[in-house]
Amino acid sequence: MLQGVLYLTEEHICFHAYFPREQDVVLKDGFLSKRSTYGLYEKYFFSLQNDVLVYYYDQLDQYCPLEIIDLKYAVKVEKDTNKNKFKILTPKRNYLFQADSLASMEEWVTQLQRSIVRANNDGDHVKIVIPIESITNIDNQLTSSFQDAIQIKTIDQDESFDEYLFAFVSDSQILFEKLNDRWSHYKELNLTRTQSGQRSTSPELTIAGLSLNVFSGWKPFSIHKRSKSVDETSTTSTRSVPKSIQSTSSTLDSVTEQEVQSSVRRKLSRRVNILVQNPIKYMSSSFNENPQEETKERFREHFALPENEELLAVFYGYYLRMIPLYGKFYISGNYVCYKSRVPGQTTNIKLPISAIYYYKKQHPTILGYYGLEILTRSQQEMFFEFGFKDIRDQFVKLLDSLKNVDKKQPLLDGTGSGSTDESLTIVQNAFIKDQLLWKKQSEIYAPGSPIVSNYGDAGTIIGAPKLEKSMHITCLTIGSRGDVQPYIALAKGLMKEGHKVRIATHGEYKDWIESHGIEFGYVGGNPAELMRICVENGMFTLGFFREGVTNFRGWLDDLLKTSWDACQGTDLIIESPSAMSGIHIAEALEIPYFRAFTMPWTRTRAYPHAFAVPYHDLKAPYNYSSYVLIENAFWRGIAPQVNRWRKNTLKLRSTNMEKMDAGTVPFLYNFSSNIVPRPYDWSDWICITGYWFLDNPEVGWKAPQTLIDFLDNNRKNDIKIVYIGFGSIVVDDPKALTKTIVEAVVKSGVAAILSKGWSDRLQQGKVDNNEKEEYPPCIYPLKSVPHDWLFERIDAVVHHGGAGTTAAGLRAGIPTIIKPFFGDQFFWGDRVESMGIGFHIRKLTVEKLAECLIKATTDELMIKKSSLTGEKIRKEDGVFNAVQAIYKHLEHARQRIVSQRHRAAGIASPTSTLGFDDLDINFKVTAALKKIVGIPGSESSGEGETIESLPATDN
C-alpha cells in the first residue's frame, strides 16, 4: 500500500507517493510458513531487503538463503484474510505464505506491495493524474484497516473500466462531497462530448518525471485498482506484465518439455563429471578473471542483484558446511557469493563485502587444499577451501583491494548513472525529504489514525495505530532491582506517549521509582529473603517447595492481596509472570493483559526453560518438556491459594492451566534477538523487543573522585580493568567468596572494581561492624555503581548472570564472565559462552576465575565479537518497539481476556477473529495428549491442577 497525498483540483484528482530506495535496510523480517511443492506449510525465517525477499532455515544464517525472490519479477501480492494467507504472483511461479495472525499478514502484504512498486520503477516517486471527466462512479466504503475510503471508477479511451480505492487516514467526507460536486458538474459535459464523438482524457501516471498512460501497461502502485473491458463481465483483478517479464515469459513458453529435460540432463552430467574427476585438475582452470556476459547475467539473476553489479571473478572451491560442498564462488564489486554445484544441494551464500569483519588464511580440512576463514559482522564464521595456493591468494588479493575501498558510503542499487558522491548525495537528500514529508503528514493526521508504514527498521511495528485516548497502565513485578529497572524504562517510554503509568512492586523501591516521576503501587514480600531461599535451594527443587510450604504461605497470601489493591483503577496490566497474580486480576477487572519478562517463558523447542538449563544441550525434546514441567510445578505449588483468593477476593470461579491458556497471552520479551534469536515456533504476539535500558538510573549520582583516579591510573599503566559484582545475590559466606575473588584478581594481573551488592545483606548485624576488610591496591571496593556509566570505561565484567547486568555488559561491547547461582542465570551464562563473547563458570575457584580474566582481557577474537555484539544492541530501541507492540496486540489482549473469562465461567466463547485459536499448537497438543492417556484435571475447576503429560517431540 503506497502512502501519499491526494490533491483535488478543478479538473483533476492528483495523487503523489514518495518512496526513497532504502539500500541495505531490512524493511521487514520474521517467521512465515511457506507452502511447499507437496502442499505442506513449512516455517522459515524471511527477510525483505533491497526489494528482494529471501528466506532461511536459521535466522542466524543470514548470508546463506535457501531461495532469493527478486520482487522486480513479481506481478502482485494477493491476500486471503480468512486464513492469514497471502501469495506473491510471478510469471514463473506463485509463492503461497501463511502468517501467524491477521495483523502480521497485513504488515507483510503492505511492505511487499511497496517493494514491488520500487523494484519495478527507476524513480523514487509515483504521480497519478485522473481527469474528473473520466470518472463513471464515486462511492464511499469502509474497510477494516482504515477509517474510511473512496472508490473511484473511470473509463479509458479504449473503453475499459478502471477502479481505484483510496484509503484515508483522516476524515474523507469533505473531500467526498467536493469531489461529488465537481463530478456532477462534468456529467453533462461528458455526455455532450460523447454524443459529439469526443473522447475523455485518460488518467496519467508519472514515475520520476516520466509521463505514461496509466492504461498502457502495468500499474506500479498498490492503491487497489481493477481493470476490465466494457464487454467483459468478469470482475477478476488484472494487471499486465512489465516488458522485461513478458520477454522472459515468452521465451519460457517457447521451450519444449524435451529441451528442458535435455538441459537438465546436460547440467547434471556436467556436475557429476566434475565430482568424479580429480578436483585439483579441475582447479587448474577454476579461476576466471574475465567472466563472459552470459555468466554475469546468470549471476545477477540468481542472486537478485542490480544491473550495474559488476562480476569481477569466478572461482571454484569448497564451502565447509558440516561437510565440504563443492561449488562456484563469485566476487563482484559489493558481494562475495557462492552457489553449490553438488546435485541435490541448493546452498547459496550472498555476503556483502561491507559485512566482512576480518578474514585470514588458515589450515584446510582437505589434504592438499588451502583454507580461508571469514568472520562477518554478525559473528558468523565461514570457511572456504581452494585447490591451489595461488587461487586462494588471488581470492584474498581481490578481497583486499575491495576492502580497501572506502566502505563508509552506502551500497547503491545504481539504477542510474553518476559518480558515487552524486549517488550518496541523492540518497541523503531522499531520506531528508522523506522524513520532512512524514513529519508534515503526522501533523495533519487525525489523532488515533493508523499510519500504514514509515520508512525504517525491521524492528518498527507497522500499522500500529496510536490510541485515541491515554490509558492508565500498571506494571506488576517482584524480585530484585534488576527485575524492576526495565519497567522504569518502559514506563518513561509510555509516559512520553501520554499514558499514566504505575509500577507495583516491593516497598523498598518506592523512593527510586518515584524519583523518576512514576506512580508507585505497593506489593508485599521481602526480595532479599526470596533471593536467599533461591540460592540455597535452587529454583523449584524439593528444598525450595519444602521451605516454601513452611515459610511462604503467608508471603504468597500477602502478595496476592497487595497486588489486587495495587492494580485498582487501571486500564491495562503488564506483568512479570513471576508475580503470579496479574492474569487473574485482569480477568476480574476485564482489562487487557500483557506479560513481560527478561528470560524465555514461552514454550519452544529452541531453548530450555531458563530455570532448567542442563549441563549439556539435550535438544528439542528436552527443551519443550522443560517448559511443561516448570509450568506445572509452578502452578501446582500456588494453585490452592490462588483459587481460594479468586473465590474470596476476586469473586471468580476456580481455574486451571487450560482455562487460563497462557500460550495466547501477548508477551513482551525485553532482551535482544541478537542474543536470543526468535524461535520459529513462537506466535506473532510473542515479541522480542530488545532491551529496555534505563540511562542514568540513579538520579543525581556522581562518580567518586577516587574511582575516577583508579580508572585513570590503570589506563596510564596499560593495565586491564574489570568489574566484579554479584548484584542482588545473597550468599552464606561472603568473606570466602571475596577471598577467592581477590586471589584470582592478583593472580591474573588485572585491576578490579569490586561491588559486593547484596552478598552480605543477611550477614548484617551478625558480624563485628568494626572489622574492616582490606584489599590490595589493584582492587577498588564499592557498594554499587551505575552499570551504564562504568561498563563503557572498562575491559570485562564478572557477575552472577542476572538479566539486567548481562544486558549492560553486552551493550558496552566487552567480554562477560558469568558465575550463576540460580534461576535464569545459567541460561544467560550458556548464551554468552555459546556466542564466544564470554565464559560460563559453574564452580568458582581461584584458578578458573584467573584463567577466564586473562582470556577475557587478551583474546582478540572474543574482544572483537563482544564489540560487534555491543554495536548491534546499541542500535536497538527496545522501549519504542515494546510500545508499538502494545498498540499492535492490544485488541488481541482484549479479546483474549474475554475468552479466558468465558472459559473460567464455563461459557462457550464466540469464535475469535484474531486467529490464535487455530495457532496455539502447543496448547492443543498437550490437551489432546491428556485426553488420550486419560489424565484427569482438564475439566477440573478445583483448587489443584494435575501435572500435564509430556508431549512426545522430536527433531
From TrEMBL:
Keyword Hydrolase: no
Biased composition (Polar residues): 232-254
Domain PH: 25-117
Region (Disordered): 229-254
Gene3D superfamilies linked: Glycogen Phosphorylase B, Pleckstrin-homology domain (PH domain)/Phosphotyrosine-binding domain (PTB)
Keywords: Glycosyltransferase, Transferase
Keyword Glycosyltransferase tagged: yes
EC number: 2.4.1.173
Pfam families (UniProt xref): EryCIII-like_C, Glyco_transf_28, GRAM, PH
Domain of life: Eukaryota
BP GO annotations: carbohydrate metabolic process; sterol metabolic process
PANTHER family for this protein: STEROL 3-BETA-GLUCOSYLTRANSFERASE
Name of this chain's protein: sterol 3beta-glucosyltransferase
Organism whose genome encodes this protein: Gigaspora margarita
Organism classification: Eukaryota, Fungi, Fungi incertae sedis, Mucoromycota, Glomeromycotina
